[in-house]
Give the backbone structure.
Amino acid sequence: MAKETKDYSKYFDFSDAKVLHEDENGKKIRIRGREIHILSEPNHKQEKQRGKESVQVHYEQAVPDELRTIGQGKHYIVYTFGCQMNEHDTETIKGLLEQMGYQPTEDRKEADIILLNTCAIRENAEDKVFGELGHLKHLKTENPELLLGVCGCMSQEETVVNRILQKHGFVDMIFGTHNIHRLPLLIHESLMSKEMVVDVWSKEGDIIENLPKKREGMRAWVNIMYGCDKFCTYCIVPFTRGKERSRRPEDVIAEVRDLARQGFKEITLLGQNVNAYGKDFTDITYSFANLMDDIHKIDIPRVRFTTSHPRDFDDELIAVLAKGGNLVEHIHLPVQSGNTEVLKMMGRKYSREHYLELVRKIKAAIPNVVLTTDIIVGFPGETDEQFEETLSLVREVGYDSAYTFIYSPREGTPAASMKDDIPMEVKKERLYRLNEAIQECSRESSEQFKGQIVEVLVEGRSKNNAEVLSGRTRTNKLVHFEGAPELIGTFVHVEITDPMTWYIKGKIVNDPVVSA
Ligand code: SAH
Ligand code: SF4
Ligand code: F3S
């Protein structure tokens, strides 16, 4: 691959950076006395491209035998920011670290390696990470042997990497979302050389199967695909996560079967746009509906998925979900806006009417379905009237809950060059009103539960009261009730006594479930 010469001066003053060595394997530079080995670096232009080359699947061992003792007697911490995709990547990172002999700790002072698995979705997500880096600098000063790494979606951004090189020279490792499997080698190199090692792949490569994963609890995440090709105009994800590529059905199914055998009670299938699953297969015709139908036959009590894009949610999928069984009655269906014009500007490729029609079809096929969503307020140019349409859509659909956000411009996305012309007070007011509307819907939906008996997977003790257990219904509602800790990890029947807004209270009964 031809290396492009990058103009660092675009973002920062790199006049004191000296290139020490450069060849096809990367380059060594020195900035303010810190030597940096750049094996590969993020490149926005390349991240934008969607190559035609087919995806290869590798079933290799990621931790070579000679690195399996490198972490013996040492401790690690991984801090995770962002979505479930990142949470799950962290499980892989922990799996790799433990195969290298590292043990977990919560005590920063005891840690020999600390990794920040970062999120780039909004500016405040990035601010949190830079704030954390500030704290870690002190720790590194006290303990120079501490290895500090930054990975995840922020590492895929040119500006972020440049800022770290310039201003946070105490960081030891930067790697991206496409090459997590190289972590053992990067740790090794960083320990040996004492240089900062940067290895961020811009082109999403292949799919690496069989990476170790450290899962905890009774619920497990399962990746079904990586990347996103939707390019919604506000969103950084297609750049940080690369092109859409699906795992082979046989690999997904084998993983789900294995989780069932291990006793997991619930799985959540993960993808940025699960409805696009299988569209990249060139040798077989196999869709998300086919996958759900196959997983429906596996003996695991609950199956969820996230996230589905309304545009590709087809009738075949609705028909499969209507079969119920382990396929739960909860669909997270991000709408983003209730106004067709704004949706067009966002590049969502569906209209308000299309979305509402989809909701109608889903509700008709799955009568007790619960819908949740994501909404952005204050997208460039959004008028008061357009925002009112979002409120009316929220009321019409009757969401159980929603993640709501103030629009945050992301450099390199098409929306970032639109005029961000709505004052912050207006954005905040819209967010406030939106949250009130959602709270109202949520309360109404909880009210309907009163007196019903629901199936609850007991997850643990309540955070606020050790006598009280907490768990979730099939529709993902949080339920609190009194019970013995032995029930954790089992299914119980709970009669709902007090529906609150964000959770419901109930009491355990022995009667059979009459409703989900
Ligand atoms: N793949 C998922 C979304 C992942 S990002 C989907 O398409 O549904 C999670 C949510 O973050 C998005 O649904 C959107 O509501 C929000 N989001 C993404 N980019 C944003 C931005 N630039 N500003 C504010 N919110 C954003
Ligand atoms: Fe972002 Fe849109 Fe892809 Fe979701 S579907 S990850 S919002 S580009
Ligand atoms: Fe954030 Fe990356 Fe997820 S940007 S929301 S961690 S895909």
